[in-house]
Design brief:
This protein is an alpha+beta fold. The chain contains four helices and ten strands. It has helices at about 25-30, 70-80, 115-125, 145-150; strands at about 5-10, 15-20, 35-40, 45-50, 55, 60-65, 85, 85-90, 105-110, 130-135. Bound molecules: flavin-adenine dinucleotide (FAD). The site of flavin-adenine dinucleotide has 16 residues, from β4, β6 and α2.
């Protein structure tokens, strides 16, 4: 079994956390809008999580997770830098069509801000003027403001 090592962990709030995972093949294959199936351990449930970012140079994919139930809470406890996930399968799902639109608005709220980042970046790389509209319940819950500013006008 491959070693899906966690290289970065960031906590955005009491229930929302980011995991950056070493997986060079996945990082090369991933496209905006796709997801992976994750298993925390051998007995673990398989859960779908969106690829919120991928970096071919670093060979990593990034997941942003909300702890809502059994597995996502277990992962919140167990997934620390240096530990590994048992399984990460994908990329799955039909990639978001990027095309050659001239002006695009990307809208997301809360945890849903993370999955639209790769799309906003891909639109920008394709030459579109990208407007980002992202919302959070409170200032404390805001994350990835700088990442969005780098690819979109807000
Ligand atoms: C394509 C796709 C992409 C996704 N991407 C992401 C992502 O990027 N990040 C993310 O955080 N999530 C994402 N999700 C959602 C994520 O898969 C789920 O939150 C996760 O599977 C929940 O697993 P769990 O074991 O933690 O929760 P579970 O224990 O399965 O609980 C899930 C919810 O159901 C409730 N529940 C559980 N059992 C019962 C019951 N018996 N009666 C009533 N309610 C119950 C729980 O309270 C909880 O709110 C995605 C889902 C899909 C389909």
């Amino acid at each position: 079994m491959a070693n899906f090592e966690i290289v970065t962990r960031e906590d955005f709030s009491d229930v929302t956390y980011l995991l950056e995972i070493r997986h060079p093949m996945m990082a090369r294959a991933a496209k905006p809008g796709q997801f992976v199936i994750v298993m925390l351990n051998e007995q673990g449930e398989r859960i779908p999580l969106t690829i919120a970012d991928f970096d071919c140079d670093k060979g990593t994919i990034t997941l942003v997770i909300q702890a809502v139930g059994k597995t996502t809470r277990q992962m919140q406890q167990a997934c620390q830098v240096g530990t590994s996930l048992y399984g990460v399968v994908g990329p799955m799902g039909i990639p978001s069509p990027i095309g050659n639109a001239k002006k695009v608005m990307c809208v997301g709220g809360g945890l849903g801000v993370a999955p639209i980042f790769p799309q906003a970046r891909a639109f920008k790389q394709a030459g579109a003027y990208v407007i980002g509209v992202v919302g959070f319940r409170s200032k404390e819950l805001v994350f990835w403001e700088e990442k969005f500013r780098a690819v979109a006008t807000s």
